[in-house]
Amino acid sequence: MPPERRITRFAPSPTGPLHLGHAYSALVAAWRGQQGQFLLRIEDIDGARCKPAFEAQIYDDLRWLGLDWPVPVMRQSDRMPAYRAALQRLAGLGVVYPCQCTRGDIRAALSAPQEGAHVIGPDGLVYPGRCRGRDMAQAGPNDALRLDMRRALALTGRVSFVENGPLHGGHHSPDPDEMIASIGDVVLSRRDMGTSYHLSVVVDDAAQAITEVTRGADLFEATAIHVLLQVLLELPRPSYWHHDLIRDEKGKRLAKRDDARAIAAYRAAGASPADIRAMLNL
Ligand code: GLU
Fold first, then answer.
1. What is the 138 CA–ligand 1 centroid distance (Å)?
2. Which of 1, 243, 262, 267 has its CA 20 to 30 A from that of 178?
3. How far is the CA of 11 from the centre of ligand 1 (A)?
4. Please, what CATH class does the domain formed by 79-206 belong to?
5. Which CATH superfamily, name and number, covers 1-78+247-282?
6. Taking the model in full, what pTM does it have?
7. Ligand 1 centre distance from Cα of residue 137 (Å)
8. Which protein residues touch ligand 1 with a CB less than 6 Å away?
9. Digit-coded pLDDT (tens) for 142-198
10. What residues contact residue 211 under an 8 Å CB cut-off, 6+ apart?
11. 50-88: per-residue pLDDT in tens?
């Protein structure tokens, strides 16, 4: 078999300045893709938080770091028809239901005495299932759409993926019962967006023919959701490389809003791209 021509990507959300953690993620993705292709994707489905100025700064900082990528760059805000088509396909499989619950409703349902401890999964609080079983014909314009995790797994059986990165390297096949209990019915379409991170990332990694998804270890737990969606949508399945997260001197994860660690701030202070790489131990 010819060796795989690896295609990787860096997929930032332009909700703030590019900081050291992003630079690390971009450089790792470019390094993994250097014998193949490195792509950029702008994840701007959250219209309220994404700003054109941040997007422009991302391009500028990445170029300054020495990175290069094919244009035009895929932008998720242009991809709504593709997300709608995927949702329709999932709805056709009977694994999607409309949900009217507000965050307050979910917290209230979870604080009922019969509920056990709240489980926080990769999609936030595990949904208690109040709207599960509602029919898509009942979907209102302000409803979110959720994946019925149990039904989805009944269709796919156990899903699996290959992790190439050093942190969790190997073959993973998460236990379906564990996925139901600790991930639950994730949101596929938010009422204010018409899609969600999980759905868009899966549709777009396939559209860009990504063969290895490189990203931070904070998204490792979400990979089970993504692989499940890939199987349901009959999409090709990339392998994964989750890298460690960049932390500050106290060991705390860098926050996206930590402007002191923005690449722009280091640039303004006279740092070179080589200085940034050195700070990141690259
Ligand atoms: N857009 C996500 C972020 O900025 C990254 C998603 C991914 O790489 O899968 O955190």
1. 32
2. 243
3. 5
4. alpha beta
5. HUPs (3.40.50.620)
6. 0.95
7. 32
8. 11-13, 43, 201, 215, 219
9. 999 999 999 999 999 999 999 999 999 999 999 999 999 999 999 999 999 999 999
10. 4, 5, 6, 7, 8, 36, 238, 239
11. 999 999 999 999 999 999 999 999 999 999 999 999 999
